[in-house]
Amino acid sequence: MDQVDITQTPSPNEKGGLSFRGLIEVFYQPTSFFEELKDSPKVLVPYLALAVVCGLFFYLATDFIVAMQMELPEVQEAMEAQRIPLEQMKTIMWYQTGIGGIIALLLAPLLIAGLGLFWNNFVFGLKSSFKQVLSLVLYGEFLYMIGAMVHVPIMFAKDTIMVTFSPAVLVADQGMTSIWFVLLDKFSVFHIWEIVVVGIGLSVLCEVPRNKGYLLAVLSVGGLSVLHVITTGIGMLFR
């Protein structure tokens, strides 16, 4: 796996401000943007932008997440067993949820890029570097998190974290921690949008037909989603 170099080295054919332009162009002209990004992958700016959006999301949404978690039987049992006051437990869970959530979302692009590199280079025999794959994944994750921000005003309007643009709405009564909710939520509008955009990027990067780019995106972005569903299922076995 290639070492990640976060320095921004411009390509001779690169137009100015590619790192920042990409944060907008990935939404409406991903193909032409990824054509530029292929020869001059960017990591620092999209990673910082992703961190800012993740931080803002959890700052606004963590109260709703904690409120949902406080209703879980295992949390109530832990409070009784350890005699932790309600407000103290809320504070502990607020920081754990916020900090842990941000860290998890910032690690996700590295895992997705690792899966992408594995499928690209070792399974299908294509040519790509870890930095190239990571760069386009970061822009895809940024797009996804902007989509996640759309949930926030609806959360405030409904006063609940149970907001989703996916078939998971059909099993909302089972709670966000149920395996069926987690599974169906992977088919959200924004997950699909991210896979489509990353698929476009991989088809440009690896110089393969668009349908093969989509397959690579499903195997990499979707691969991480599958791992999330599996770990959720395993966790439920021990409740």
Number of helices: 10
User: What is the count of β-strands?
Assistant: 0
Beta-strand share of residues = under 5%
Subunit arrangement of the protein? single chain
Order of helices and strands: HHHHHHHHHH
Helix/strand-derived class?
Answer: mainly alpha
Please state the average pLDDT score: 89
Radius of gyration from the CA trace? 19 Å
Major pleated sheet: none
Low-confidence stretches are none
Instruction: Give the fraction of residues assigned to helices.
Output: over 70%
Terminal Cα span: 37 Å
Shape: elongated
Explain what the structure shows.
With 239 residues, the chain is mainly alpha-helical. The protein is 74% helix and 0% strand. It has ten helices and no strands. α1 packs across α3, α1 packs across α6 (130-149) and α3 packs across α5. The radius of gyration is 19 Å and the shape is elongated.
Summarize the structure.
With 239 residues, this protein is an all-alpha fold. It has 10 helices and no strands.
Show the helix and strand layout:
Elements: H1 18-28, H2 30-39, H3 44-69, H4 73-82, H5 86-123, H6 130-149, H7 151-158, H8 179-185, H9 189-206, H10 210-237
Q: What structural keywords apply?
A:
239 residues
